[in-house]
Amino acid sequence: MTAGTYPSPEPVEDPEALRADEAAYRDLADAVRELLDLTVRTRVDQPERAAVATEVRALSARLSARAQDGPLGLETTSDGRLRDHGNPMVGMRNPVAPPLTVRQTGEGEAAADPFVLGAAYEGPPGHVHGGIIASVLDQVLGTVPAIVGRPGMTAYLNLTYRRPTPLGQVSGRARVAGTDGWKTTVTGELLDADGQVTVEAEGLFVVPRWARQYLGTPTGDAGDFEAPAEAGPDA
Ligand SMILES: CCCCCCCCCCCCCCCC(=O)SCCNC(=O)CCNC(=O)[C@H](O)C(C)(C)COP(=O)(O)OP(=O)(O)OC[C@H]1O[C@@H](n2cnc3c(N)ncnc32)[C@H](O)[C@@H]1OP(=O)(O)O
Protein backbone atom coordinates (compact mmCIF):
# COMPACT_ATOMS: atom_id res chain seq x y z
CA MET A 1 0.00 0.00 0.00
CA THR A 2 1.21 3.43 -0.88
CA ALA A 3 0.57 6.68 1.03
CA GLY A 4 -1.80 9.39 -0.17
CA THR A 5 -4.92 7.31 -0.73
CA TYR A 6 -8.41 8.50 0.21
CA PRO A 7 -11.37 6.75 1.81
CA SER A 8 -13.82 5.16 -0.59
CA PRO A 9 -17.45 6.29 -0.57
CA GLU A 10 -18.37 2.64 -1.31
CA PRO A 11 -18.66 0.26 1.68
CA VAL A 12 -16.59 -2.95 1.51
CA GLU A 13 -19.09 -5.81 1.80
CA ASP A 14 -16.64 -8.68 2.38
CA PRO A 15 -13.11 -7.40 3.18
CA GLU A 16 -11.71 -10.95 3.64
CA ALA A 17 -12.87 -12.09 0.20
CA LEU A 18 -11.61 -8.85 -1.37
CA ARG A 19 -8.23 -9.26 0.37
CA ALA A 20 -7.86 -12.75 -1.11
CA ASP A 21 -8.89 -11.41 -4.53
CA GLU A 22 -6.28 -8.62 -4.27
CA ALA A 23 -3.59 -11.14 -3.29
CA ALA A 24 -4.39 -13.21 -6.37
CA TYR A 25 -4.23 -10.13 -8.64
CA ARG A 26 -0.91 -9.13 -7.04
CA ASP A 27 0.47 -12.63 -7.55
CA LEU A 28 -0.57 -12.61 -11.22
CA ALA A 29 1.16 -9.24 -11.73
CA ASP A 30 4.30 -10.54 -9.98
CA ALA A 31 4.35 -13.62 -12.23
CA VAL A 32 3.96 -11.52 -15.40
CA ARG A 33 6.65 -9.13 -14.15
CA GLU A 34 9.05 -12.07 -13.92
CA LEU A 35 7.98 -13.01 -17.45
CA LEU A 36 8.71 -9.47 -18.66
CA ASP A 37 12.17 -9.53 -17.13
CA LEU A 38 12.98 -12.95 -18.60
CA THR A 39 11.53 -12.00 -21.99
CA VAL A 40 14.20 -9.31 -22.12
CA ARG A 41 17.02 -11.52 -20.77
CA THR A 42 16.34 -14.99 -22.16
CA ARG A 43 18.90 -16.72 -24.39
CA VAL A 44 16.96 -19.96 -24.96
CA ASP A 45 17.00 -21.01 -28.60
CA GLN A 46 14.59 -19.80 -31.23
CA PRO A 47 12.20 -22.84 -31.34
CA GLU A 48 11.84 -22.65 -27.55
CA ARG A 49 11.07 -18.93 -27.74
CA ALA A 50 8.45 -19.62 -30.43
CA ALA A 51 6.87 -22.30 -28.24
CA VAL A 52 6.76 -19.95 -25.25
CA ALA A 53 5.14 -17.23 -27.39
CA THR A 54 2.37 -19.69 -28.34
CA GLU A 55 1.81 -20.58 -24.68
CA VAL A 56 1.76 -16.95 -23.60
CA ARG A 57 -0.89 -16.18 -26.27
CA ALA A 58 -2.97 -19.06 -24.92
CA LEU A 59 -2.71 -17.57 -21.41
CA SER A 60 -3.78 -14.15 -22.72
CA ALA A 61 -6.82 -15.79 -24.32
CA ARG A 62 -7.77 -17.27 -20.92
CA LEU A 63 -7.55 -13.84 -19.26
CA SER A 64 -9.56 -12.20 -22.04
CA ALA A 65 -12.48 -14.56 -21.29
CA ARG A 66 -13.56 -11.86 -18.82
CA ALA A 67 -11.84 -8.47 -19.14
CA GLN A 68 -13.14 -4.94 -19.02
CA ASP A 69 -12.84 -2.81 -22.14
CA GLY A 70 -11.00 0.19 -20.75
CA PRO A 71 -8.68 1.21 -17.91
CA LEU A 72 -9.35 0.54 -14.21
CA GLY A 73 -9.67 4.07 -12.79
CA LEU A 74 -10.04 4.02 -9.01
CA GLU A 75 -11.25 0.93 -7.16
CA THR A 76 -12.17 0.35 -3.52
CA THR A 77 -9.57 -1.73 -1.66
CA SER A 78 -10.18 -4.27 1.11
CA ASP A 79 -9.20 -1.61 3.66
CA GLY A 80 -11.81 0.82 2.34
CA ARG A 81 -9.49 3.16 0.42
CA LEU A 82 -9.55 4.27 -3.21
CA ARG A 83 -6.65 2.90 -5.20
CA ASP A 84 -5.39 3.04 -8.80
CA HIS A 85 -4.53 -0.62 -9.33
CA GLY A 86 -3.52 0.00 -12.96
CA ASN A 87 -0.97 2.72 -12.13
CA PRO A 88 2.28 1.95 -14.02
CA MET A 89 4.45 2.83 -10.99
CA VAL A 90 2.50 1.60 -7.95
CA GLY A 91 -0.47 -0.35 -9.33
CA MET A 92 -0.72 -3.78 -7.74
CA ARG A 93 -2.36 -5.20 -10.87
CA ASN A 94 0.19 -3.72 -13.29
CA PRO A 95 3.24 -5.87 -14.14
CA VAL A 96 4.85 -2.83 -15.80
CA ALA A 97 5.02 -1.18 -12.34
CA PRO A 98 8.45 -1.83 -10.69
CA PRO A 99 6.41 -1.72 -8.24
CA LEU A 100 7.12 1.16 -5.88
CA THR A 101 5.90 1.51 -2.33
CA VAL A 102 5.74 5.15 -1.29
CA ARG A 103 5.47 5.79 2.46
CA GLN A 104 4.87 8.96 4.42
CA THR A 105 8.08 9.56 6.36
CA GLY A 106 7.25 12.80 8.17
CA GLU A 107 5.23 15.99 7.97
CA GLY A 108 4.96 16.64 4.24
CA GLU A 109 7.58 14.00 3.38
CA ALA A 110 7.48 10.69 1.55
CA ALA A 111 9.97 8.05 0.45
CA ALA A 112 9.99 5.17 -1.97
CA ASP A 113 11.39 2.10 -0.23
CA PRO A 114 14.38 0.54 -2.01
CA PHE A 115 13.22 -1.42 -5.06
CA VAL A 116 14.93 -3.02 -8.04
CA LEU A 117 14.91 -1.73 -11.62
CA GLY A 118 16.22 -4.54 -13.81
CA ALA A 119 16.89 -5.19 -17.49
CA ALA A 120 13.35 -4.21 -18.56
CA TYR A 121 14.09 -0.60 -17.51
CA GLU A 122 17.45 -0.18 -19.26
CA GLY A 123 18.30 3.00 -21.13
CA PRO A 124 22.04 3.64 -21.49
CA PRO A 125 23.77 0.22 -21.26
CA GLY A 126 23.66 -0.99 -17.65
CA HIS A 127 21.76 2.08 -16.50
CA VAL A 128 18.17 3.15 -15.90
CA HIS A 129 16.26 4.82 -18.74
CA GLY A 130 15.77 8.55 -18.05
CA GLY A 131 12.04 8.41 -18.81
CA ILE A 132 11.57 5.65 -16.26
CA ILE A 133 13.37 7.81 -13.69
CA ALA A 134 10.99 10.66 -14.51
CA SER A 135 8.01 8.37 -13.95
CA VAL A 136 9.37 7.14 -10.63
CA LEU A 137 10.03 10.67 -9.40
CA ASP A 138 6.65 11.92 -10.66
CA GLN A 139 5.03 9.26 -8.49
CA VAL A 140 7.20 9.86 -5.41
CA LEU A 141 6.92 13.66 -5.57
CA GLY A 142 3.22 13.44 -6.54
CA THR A 143 2.41 11.49 -3.39
CA VAL A 144 3.53 14.39 -1.16
CA PRO A 145 0.73 16.84 -2.05
CA ALA A 146 -1.78 14.01 -1.56
CA ILE A 147 -0.55 13.27 1.98
CA VAL A 148 -0.87 16.94 2.94
CA GLY A 149 -4.45 17.05 1.62
CA ARG A 150 -3.86 18.65 -1.78
CA PRO A 151 -3.82 15.75 -4.30
CA GLY A 152 -2.74 17.57 -7.44
CA MET A 153 -1.87 16.83 -11.01
CA THR A 154 1.66 17.41 -12.22
CA ALA A 155 1.88 20.88 -13.79
CA TYR A 156 5.64 20.61 -14.32
CA LEU A 157 8.41 18.25 -13.33
CA ASN A 158 11.99 19.48 -13.69
CA LEU A 159 14.77 16.92 -13.47
CA THR A 160 18.52 17.29 -13.16
CA TYR A 161 20.32 14.07 -14.03
CA ARG A 162 23.50 14.45 -11.96
CA ARG A 163 25.00 11.05 -12.82
CA PRO A 164 23.87 7.85 -14.54
CA THR A 165 21.75 5.56 -12.36
CA PRO A 166 23.00 1.96 -12.43
CA LEU A 167 20.34 -0.74 -12.89
CA GLY A 168 19.67 -2.51 -9.61
CA GLN A 169 18.43 -1.17 -6.31
CA VAL A 170 17.22 2.44 -6.19
CA SER A 171 15.14 4.50 -3.78
CA GLY A 172 13.49 7.90 -3.72
CA ARG A 173 12.46 10.66 -1.34
CA ALA A 174 10.50 13.91 -1.54
CA ARG A 175 9.20 16.73 0.60
CA VAL A 176 7.07 19.88 0.40
CA ALA A 177 9.17 22.86 -0.66
CA GLY A 178 6.34 25.38 -0.66
CA THR A 179 2.60 25.82 -0.93
CA ASP A 180 0.50 28.55 -2.49
CA GLY A 181 -3.23 27.96 -2.36
CA TRP A 182 -3.97 24.92 -4.52
CA LYS A 183 -0.36 24.68 -5.72
CA THR A 184 2.29 22.56 -3.98
CA THR A 185 5.95 22.66 -4.95
CA VAL A 186 7.82 19.49 -4.08
CA THR A 187 11.50 18.61 -4.29
CA GLY A 188 12.99 15.15 -4.27
CA GLU A 189 15.77 12.83 -5.32
CA LEU A 190 16.46 9.40 -6.75
CA LEU A 191 19.27 7.49 -5.02
CA ASP A 192 21.34 4.54 -6.21
CA ALA A 193 22.18 1.38 -4.22
CA ASP A 194 25.05 3.22 -2.46
CA GLY A 195 22.70 6.00 -1.33
CA GLN A 196 24.22 8.49 -3.77
CA VAL A 197 21.83 11.03 -5.28
CA THR A 198 21.73 10.47 -9.05
CA VAL A 199 18.78 12.67 -10.02
CA GLU A 200 17.24 15.76 -8.42
CA ALA A 201 13.66 16.83 -9.08
CA GLU A 202 11.33 19.74 -8.52
CA GLY A 203 7.66 19.46 -9.35
CA LEU A 204 4.59 21.66 -9.17
CA PHE A 205 1.35 19.85 -8.35
CA VAL A 206 -1.95 21.67 -8.80
CA VAL A 207 -5.36 20.58 -7.54
CA PRO A 208 -7.45 20.99 -10.71
CA ARG A 209 -10.33 23.46 -10.56
CA TRP A 210 -12.88 20.66 -10.97
CA ALA A 211 -11.52 18.85 -7.87
CA ARG A 212 -11.31 21.78 -5.45
CA GLN A 213 -14.90 21.62 -4.21
CA TYR A 214 -14.11 18.18 -2.69
CA LEU A 215 -11.06 19.30 -0.72
CA GLY A 216 -12.00 22.31 1.41
CA THR A 217 -10.21 25.64 1.18
CA PRO A 218 -6.45 26.11 1.55
CA THR A 219 -5.59 29.23 3.51
CA GLY A 220 -1.82 29.48 3.15
CA ASP A 221 0.89 27.01 3.95
CA ALA A 222 0.34 23.31 4.68
CA GLY A 223 0.01 24.00 8.41
CA ASP A 224 -3.02 26.22 7.82
CA PHE A 225 -4.80 23.73 5.62
CA GLU A 226 -7.92 22.06 6.99
CA ALA A 227 -8.69 18.98 4.92
CA PRO A 228 -12.11 17.49 5.76
CA ALA A 229 -11.39 14.55 8.13
CA GLU A 230 -13.50 12.07 6.17
CA ALA A 231 -11.68 12.96 2.93
CA GLY A 232 -8.16 12.96 4.40
CA PRO A 233 -5.32 10.83 3.12
CA ASP A 234 -3.79 7.95 5.04
CA ALA A 235 -0.26 7.98 6.39
C1 LIG B 1 -7.53 15.33 -7.69
C2 LIG B 1 -6.52 14.83 -8.70
C3 LIG B 1 -6.23 13.38 -8.66
C4 LIG B 1 -5.45 12.96 -7.41
C5 LIG B 1 -5.47 11.49 -7.15
C6 LIG B 1 -4.70 11.05 -5.88
C7 LIG B 1 -3.22 11.09 -6.08
C8 LIG B 1 -2.37 10.21 -5.19
C9 LIG B 1 -0.89 10.31 -5.52
C10 LIG B 1 -0.68 10.27 -6.96
C11 LIG B 1 0.69 10.61 -7.47
C12 LIG B 1 0.55 10.79 -8.89
C13 LIG B 1 1.78 11.16 -9.63
C14 LIG B 1 1.49 11.23 -11.08
C15 LIG B 1 0.67 12.46 -11.42
C16 LIG B 1 0.35 12.56 -12.87
O1 LIG B 1 0.87 11.84 -13.69
S1 LIG B 1 -0.77 13.74 -13.35
C17 LIG B 1 -0.74 13.58 -15.13
C18 LIG B 1 0.15 14.58 -15.80
N1 LIG B 1 -0.36 15.93 -15.61
C19 LIG B 1 -1.40 16.38 -16.33
O2 LIG B 1 -1.95 15.73 -17.20
C20 LIG B 1 -1.84 17.79 -15.99
C21 LIG B 1 -2.42 18.50 -17.20
N2 LIG B 1 -2.70 19.91 -16.85
C22 LIG B 1 -3.88 20.22 -16.25
O3 LIG B 1 -4.79 19.39 -16.10
C23 LIG B 1 -4.02 21.64 -15.78
O4 LIG B 1 -3.19 22.48 -16.52
C24 LIG B 1 -3.70 21.79 -14.26
C25 LIG B 1 -2.23 21.53 -13.96
C26 LIG B 1 -4.58 20.84 -13.43
C27 LIG B 1 -4.04 23.22 -13.83
O5 LIG B 1 -5.25 23.58 -14.46
P1 LIG B 1 -6.49 24.28 -13.73
O6 LIG B 1 -7.07 23.34 -12.73
O7 LIG B 1 -7.44 24.77 -14.76
O8 LIG B 1 -5.85 25.47 -12.98
P2 LIG B 1 -5.17 26.81 -13.61
O9 LIG B 1 -6.02 27.97 -13.25
O10 LIG B 1 -4.76 26.64 -15.03
O11 LIG B 1 -3.84 26.84 -12.74
C28 LIG B 1 -3.92 26.95 -11.32
C29 LIG B 1 -2.66 27.64 -10.87
O12 LIG B 1 -1.52 26.82 -11.22
C30 LIG B 1 -0.60 27.57 -12.03
N3 LIG B 1 -0.01 26.67 -13.02
C31 LIG B 1 -0.63 25.76 -13.78
N4 LIG B 1 0.26 25.12 -14.56
C32 LIG B 1 1.47 25.65 -14.28
C33 LIG B 1 2.79 25.41 -14.74
N5 LIG B 1 3.07 24.46 -15.67
N6 LIG B 1 3.80 26.14 -14.24
C34 LIG B 1 3.57 27.08 -13.28
N7 LIG B 1 2.33 27.34 -12.79
C35 LIG B 1 1.31 26.65 -13.29
C36 LIG B 1 -1.46 28.64 -12.70
O13 LIG B 1 -0.67 29.75 -13.09
C37 LIG B 1 -2.41 28.98 -11.57
O14 LIG B 1 -1.74 29.81 -10.64
P3 LIG B 1 -2.56 30.94 -9.77
O15 LIG B 1 -3.10 31.91 -10.79
O16 LIG B 1 -3.68 30.19 -9.05
O17 LIG B 1 -1.55 31.51 -8.83
TrEMBL record:
Please give the catalytic activity noted in the UniProt record: tetradecanoyl-CoA + H2O = tetradecanoate + CoA + H(+); decanoyl-CoA + H2O = decanoate + CoA + H(+); (5Z,8Z,11Z,14Z)-eicosatetraenoyl-CoA + H2O = (5Z,8Z,11Z,14Z)-eicosatetraenoate + CoA + H(+); (9Z)-octadecenoyl-CoA + H2O = (9Z)-octadecenoate + CoA + H(+)
Where does it live in the cell?
Cell projection, Ruffle membrane; Cytoplasm; Membrane
Q: Which Pfam families match?
A: 4HBT
Q: Which domain of life is it from?
A: Bacteria
GO function terms (MF aspect): hydrolase activity
Listed GO biological process terms: fatty acid metabolic process
Question: What cellular component GO annotations does this protein have?
Answer: cytoplasm; membrane
Topological category with respect to the lipid bilayer: Peripheral membrane protein
Q: Where is this region: Disordered?
A: 70-95
Q: What is this protein called?
A: Acyl-coenzyme A thioesterase THEM4
Q: Which keywords does the record carry?
A: Apoptosis, Cell membrane, Cell projection, Cytoplasm, Fatty acid metabolism, Hydrolase, Lipid metabolism, Membrane, Transit peptide
- Enzyme Commission code(s) on record: 3.1.2.2
The record's section on CDD domains has: PaaI_thioesterase
Matching entries from InterPro entries are given as:
HotDog_dom_sf (IPR029069), THEM4/THEM5_acyl-CoA_thioest (IPR052365), Thioestr_dom (IPR006683)
Annotated Thioesterase domain ranges read: 126-197
Q: State the family it belongs to.
A: Belongs to the THEM4/THEM5 thioesterase family.
